[in-house]
Amino acid sequence: MIRPGPTITFLLLLLLAPAPVTAQGLCAVDAFGREVCLSEPADRIVSLSPGATELVYSAGAGDQLVGAGAWSDYPPEARDLPRVGDSNRVDLEAILTLEPDLVIGWTDGNSRAQLDRLAELGVPVFWLAPRTFDDIAAAVETLGLLTGHQALAEQRAGEFLADIRAIESQYDAARPVRVFYQVWDQPLMTVNDDELISKAIQLCGGTNVFGDLPRLVPRISVETLLTMDPEVIVTAGRGDSDQGWLQRWRDYPSLTAVANDNLFLVSPDLLQRATFRMLDGTRELCDLLEQARARL
């Protein structure tokens, strides 16, 4: 086990001291409903998930990132950032060594206990959990506020939402198609209507056949899927263009989706990360659902 050296010990003592607060501090409420205030825009940022990293760049603060969680690979320059752990566990010592004045966490991946410990040590922690397209825009605007890029972030967020509204208008009267989105193979997993992927399906005029299930990412059985008989099956697979997950469904030729060859592979980073790139992922999905409508 690595033991803290003199530099780390001194840093911990500094972090335990009260942080300065000004009357005109920058304050925002995070996904856990906690108000996070900074005395000045954050200049040294650590993001702990790929989605958080992308959103920091979208807010105009990419140059202020000093560390990131594993799999932070977009934009390309994010690949060169020092790594501070993954969704299972972050390296608190590595984070403290980077001397951040803001850490961005993701509620669906990072350990709350670990990040609460950072907050106890005086490091401001801001949690994100975008569940809608409006949430994505709001997250970018908030990160822009906390990092000194408010005007740019608001401009980019507004453009993103305008493009989303345009898609919504384009497919508002489209023929509904019943969609199964496969998140994983074994166990077989999907999403409900609270998940952002399902909202993209709805935006394209689709209906998530498992949207009413109570869990965000529910497990289902093959028998249940056969009963629901979706008209379209969509998956990102393992993210390597592997068609294996789709091929298994061809063993069930009575499925409407199989009978009409409506089995589609999508780009995982575009549709499974709650970032501005969901705009491109949604457009891709809408194009696929249009192909499916033509075959029904």
Lateral strand order in the biggest sheet: 4-3-5-6
Helical fraction: 25-40%
Please give the CATH class of the largest domain: Alpha Beta
Average pLDDT across residues? 91
Number of helices: 12
CATH topology of the largest domain: Rossmann fold
**CATH homologous superfamily caption of the largest domain:** Nitrogenase molybdenum iron protein domain
Can you characterise this structure?
- A 4-stranded parallel β-sheet has the order 4-3-5-6, with helices on both faces. A 4-stranded parallel β-sheet has the order 8-7-9-10. The protein has a two-stranded antiparallel sheet with strand order 1-2.
- The protein is of the alpha/beta class and 296 residues long.
- The chain contains 12 helices and 10 strands.
- Helix content is 39%, strand content 14%.
- Helix 5 (133-147) packs antiparallel against helix 6.
Overview in brief:
The chain is α/β, with parallel strands linked by helices. Helix content is 39%, strand content 14%. The longest helix is centred in the middle third of the chain and has 21 residues, at 150-170.
